[in-house]
């Protein structure tokens, strides 16, 4: 999972209000060169959006985000999601992802959470909410005690600070909603999404 995300560099965090926006948004992102997409389970439309993207792009790395409940993890696996992401760390969810053989990126924001995740054998973690939880200084501080942990910072990242995050040795990729914002999706501004994806793509 880390290698796939590292190659993708930027993971768009997607929030769909209308499932018919899902495929055009994926078209725009893929045209811009992004290869891993996260559909968040924050709206009613999320599952239909996920299914539509997976059907159109069976070979693209499409996963679900905002996984808070076991039932969501199970449904994500059944729907064909390639990975799951949570904003925080919960050992039960991590154990379930492992038993389902679903790649999993749980969120951490403190040293204690990193220790708990590490104890479960996880070494690739979402750092969330990155900017609010200390940003790059926090990642630098984590680097010394947690030598084998690699992060995907998310939360408050945009075109201006993404390069600085990606330059950190313990960062494999960044995630964020800026590449395909809710506003751009709502306005069906696919050209804007492709332009932002191109600017973000490796
Ligand atoms: C996430 O779940 O990763 C965040 O909501 C994305 O944060 P952003 O909207 O600040 O990019």
Principal-axis shape equals: globular
Name every ligand kind in the structure: 3-phosphoglyceric acid
Strand content: 15-25%
Query: Runs with pLDDT <50, length 5+?
Result: none
Largest sheet, spatial ordering of strands:
3-2-1-9
Structural class: alpha/beta
CATH architectural name: Alpha-Beta Barrel
In DSSP terms, counting alpha (H) and pi (I) runs of 4 or more, how many helices?
10
Name given to the CATH homologous superfamily: Aldolase class I
Q: How is the CATH topology named?
A: TIM Barrel
Order of helices and strands: HEHEHEHEHEEHEHEHEHH
User: Which bin fits the share of residues in helices?
Assistant: 40-55%
SSE map:
Elements: H1 2-8, E1 10-14, H2 22-31, E2 36-40, H3 46-56, E3 61-65, H4 70-79, E4 83-85, H5 91-100, E5 103-105, E6 107-108, H6 111-119, E7 124-127, H7 135-143, E8 150-153, H8 162-166, E9 174-176, H9 182-186, H10 190-200
Parallel strand pairs: 1-2, 1-9, 2-3, 4-5, 6-7, 7-8
Helix pairs in contact: 2-10, 4-5
The structure holds 3-phosphoglyceric acid.
Explain how this protein is built.
With 202 residues, the chain is α/β, with parallel strands linked by helices. The chain has a single domain (2-103, 158-200), classed as TIM Barrel (Alpha-Beta Barrel), CATH 3.20.20.70. The chain has ten helices and nine strands. The chain has helices spanning 2-8, 22-31, 46-56, 70-79, 91-100, 111-119, 135-143, 162-166, 182-186, 190-200; strands at 10-14, 36-40, 61-65, 83-85, 103-105, 107-108, 124-127, 150-153, 174-176. A four-stranded parallel β-sheet has the order 3-2-1-9, with helices on both faces. A three-stranded parallel β-sheet has the order 6-7-8. Strands 4-5 form a two-stranded parallel ribbon. The structure holds 3-phosphoglyceric acid. 3-phosphoglyceric acid (3PG) is lined by residues 13, 65, 87, 128, 154-157, 175-178.
